[in-house]
């Protein structure tokens, strides 16, 4: 127990140091847009020692205003999905690939993904989750490529809810691709899939 709390503290400290580096990342293509709009970078939040790590795409307006991931409409839906499997935000860790808001919530550009990717990789290595749940096609493609999984190039519609396995420097990790919570606002039919996939996720934790 003493060790546990010590490791949470150390992980939290390391995450805070990493978050600081993003604050001053003026080489990011999104840095000027952040400053012009008085936005905040959105590093991620939750339990530094979480078993489950959620990875989304990029912050929207509410997230960039508050500096917190998934606090807008998609975030409220994510909260209800978590609660449907008896989890709270504080139990898990939530972050995005891209840590600054892209203008008008457009899809992230490759250069933007590339500049924030090392930070995401470090977050994964610090937290050492047992499960990585990717939210949407960008996070899914990124993680599949990162771990060189055989599902490369597959569409989210083909692989959502599928459990993939990888071995990292810190042990075995299960990866589960999920539809992005916001996708349900465009296609109500996806709600049944995302809700079922969260129950699959629960079995992993
Ligand atoms: N969509 C995302 O992918 N991330 C957020 O933080 C909010 C909305």
* Coarse shape: globular
The share of residues in extended strands comes to: 5-15%
Give the number of helices.
9
What separation lies between the terminal Cα atoms?
Answer: 20 Å
Write the H/E string, N to C: HHEEHHEHEHHEEHH
Mean pLDDT score: 96
Radius of gyration: 16 Å
Low-confidence stretches: none
3D structure, described in words:
- The chain is an alpha/beta fold and about 200 residues long.
- About 45% of the residues lie in helices and about 15% in strands.
- It contains nine helices and six strands.
- It has helices spanning about 1-25, 30-35, 60-65, 75-85, 110-125, 135-145, 155-160, 185, 190-205; strands at about 45, 50-55, 95, 130-135, 165-170, 170-180.
- It has a six-stranded mixed sheet, sandwiched between helices.
- Strand 5 and strand 6 (about 170-180) form a beta hairpin.
- Helix 1 (about 1-25) packs antiparallel against helix 5 (about 110-125).
- The model has no long low-confidence stretch (mean pLDDT about 95).
- The structure holds uracil.
- Uracil binds near residues 58, 70, 72, 75 and 182.
Which terms summarize this structure?
47% helix, 6-stranded mixed beta sheet, 6 strands, alpha/beta, binds uracil, 205 residues, globular, single chain
What order do the helices and strands come in, and which of them pair?
Blueprint: H1 2-23, H2 31-36, E1 45-46, E2 52-56, H3 61-66, H4 73-84, E3 93-96, H5 110-127, E4 131-135, H6 137-146, H7 156-159, E5 164-168, E6 171-178, H8 183-186, H9 190-204
Helix pairs in contact: 1-5
The structure holds uracil.
């Amino acid at each position: 127990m003493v060790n546990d709390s010590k490791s949470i503290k150390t992980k939290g400290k390391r995450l805070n140091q990493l978050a600081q580096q993003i604050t001053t990342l003026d080489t990011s293509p999104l840095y000027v847009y952040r400053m012009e709009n008085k936005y905040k970078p959105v590093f991620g939040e939750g339990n530094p020692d979480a078993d489950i790590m959620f990875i989304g795409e990029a912050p929207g307006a509410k997230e960039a205003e508050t500096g917190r991931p998934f606090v807008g409409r998609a975030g409220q839906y994510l909260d209800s999905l978590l609660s449907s499997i008896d989890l709270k935000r504080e139990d898990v860790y939530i972050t995005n690939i891209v840590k600054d808001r892209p203008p008008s919530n457009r899809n992230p550009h490759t250069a933007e993904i590339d500049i924030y990717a090392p930070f995401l990789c470090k977050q994964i290595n610090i937290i050492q989750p047992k499960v990585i749940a990717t939210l949407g096609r960008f996070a899914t493609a990124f993680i599949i490529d990162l771990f060189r999984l055989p599902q490369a190039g597959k569409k989210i519609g083909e692989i959502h809810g599928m459990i993939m396995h990888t071995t990292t420097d810190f042990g075995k990790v299960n990866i589960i691709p999920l539809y992005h919570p916001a996708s349900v606002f465009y296609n109500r039919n996806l709600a049944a899939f995302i809700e079922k996939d969260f129950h699959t996720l629960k079995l992993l934790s």
